[in-house]
Amino acid sequence: MTKPATQYIARQAILDATKQIFAYELLYRDSQNNAFPVGVSDEQATGRMFFNSLILVGKEKLVANHCAFINLSDTTLLQEIPRLLKPDNLVLEIVERSQNVQQLLETVKMLRKQHYRFALDDYDADPRWEPLLPHMSYIKLELEQPVLKTTMMVKKLKRLYPKMKIVVERIETYEEFEYLKSAGVDYFQGYFFAKPEMLTHGNVEPSKLVVFDLLKSTAQPNLCFKDIEKKISKDLSLTARVLKLVNARSGLEKLEMKTISQAVVYLGEDALRQFVRVLALSELGVDKPAELTKYGLMRARFMALFLAPGGEEMAEQGYLIGLMSILGAVLDMELSTIVSEFSLDSNLSGALLNYKGLLGGALRVAIAVEQNNWQEAEAVLAAVRPATPISNIYDLVAQSREYADDIFAVVSVQ
């Protein structure tokens, strides 16, 4: 069942030295309140913006065919989700909360070869950004007081990176604008020119069950396009988004898609996996505490790592069971109903409902660890994998927690 909803997005103009609009920065919003919502992670905001606005409505319409600056979490960049959009008139902003700078560097280099451009947001001169700076097309600075501090930074950056364009934000007076312009600033943003402008558009949200069903299908090593097509065709919102995505990626080719099957095949495996990641990031745990979803991801990752010695397929099954074990709470459904809806085989359903087999044992270990019941975890471990020391479990827990934190790190209000 889908339901109508209103989607919100804000855009703020970025102007050149003649006060002409050069670009718009697109900002995620979830209501008429023109501010970044409390308790929403960078990953959720990015996913919802991509899924509900950039793909469904279209980047060009949102920015009136100007350049679009879009904030991205480091996790979103590392998953290469920006490749869902063509690089034309697009600037990807790396937010100041990003942590994985070395990993980001490799992704930035790869995406730049595909003609994507990058901006470093709220640059603070921290040395950790130095590896990224030569690969940035834009640096965004927040105006500091006295203004001289900002102009000194501008001149230093211009000297070190003469081809880089400088954008200064939070400009509130004509005097500040003139002073910065004379210092060589290229582009300007702030309340002196325009406050963020609220845009709204209609939306049809996909069924959470369909989202997880697609997540299950795209977790397999080889996609079954027929299976994906059937799932998408049953949901109006997914059908609309897939067709919009094809249009966005085809650009000037103006392909005419006559069937959903044709669209799915055109997108290919990589784009479909990225599409579903956007779905999951934007829809996981909506209307539920973020910690609930975080536990699900942590449990899924733990089980995949625990079962990895049994091979890739066993690890993938573990990840799926870990995610599904928390679906009852996320979807307000009985686990037995979810097992039926997902048509799980007897091994998977037995593990999920009755802790049977190695998969079920791994799930018991994961739950015991979450409850800090190490005595129970050690007892189950001795039964299902006696050669594994409990010290190994500590390491898996740390890796799993880091994985979940990276995806659902809750940010402060922007």
TrEMBL record:
Gene3D superfamilies linked: EAL domain, Hypothetical protein af1432
EAL domain sequence ranges: 1-210
Record Pfam families: EAL, HDOD
Residue stretches making up the HDOD domain: 204-390
PANTHER family on file: CYCLIC DI-GMP PHOSPHODIESTERASE CDGJ, PTHR33525
InterPro entries per record: dGMP_Pdiesterase_EAL/HD-GYP, EAL_dom, EAL_sf, HDOD, RNase_Y/CdgJ
PROSITE patterns listed in its UniProt record: EAL, HDOD
Protein name: EAL domain protein
